[in-house]
Amino acid sequence: xxxxxxxxxxxxxxxxYAILRLRMDVFVVEQACAYPELDGRDAEPETRxxxxxxxxxxxxxxxxxxxxxxxxxxxxxxxxxxSPGHRGRGLSGALLRHAIDANAHARIDIDAQSxxxxxxxxxxxxxxxxxxxxxxxxxxxxxxxxxxx
Length: 149
Known about the structure:
The mean pLDDT is 90. The protein has a single domain, classed as 3-Layer(aba) Sandwich (Aminopeptidase). The chain is of the alpha+beta class and 149 residues long. The longest helix is centred in the first third of the chain and has 18 residues, at 13-30. It is 23% helix and 32% strand.
């Protein structure tokens, strides 16, 4: 499995298009959430874009994607998304593990869709706040903090 890790200026036009298309197809269309997908954080200098390409299996584009944002005292993983044709293969778990390992020195925060809290818990994330609605979908704030022991 090949994992690609790039900063915004390193992305090709085709890579950026594939990233945005996957995020729009899943978050906006499949999950029926009208929200400002282009939030300005993709282009921040320290943001990393990580994905597994879908090449080699007959499906074009990106199999799974996430971004890592600098949040000052730690990082925030978000926009974790897997193409419908690639779900159930463990790809997003491998990509998340890669992102965790690459940021092992830092506190990592996520806002997990509530139904995925157990999945994130399997990576060591712990709920650290109350459930909230984001774009009509229940979420839980979670973190993984190497400083806490």
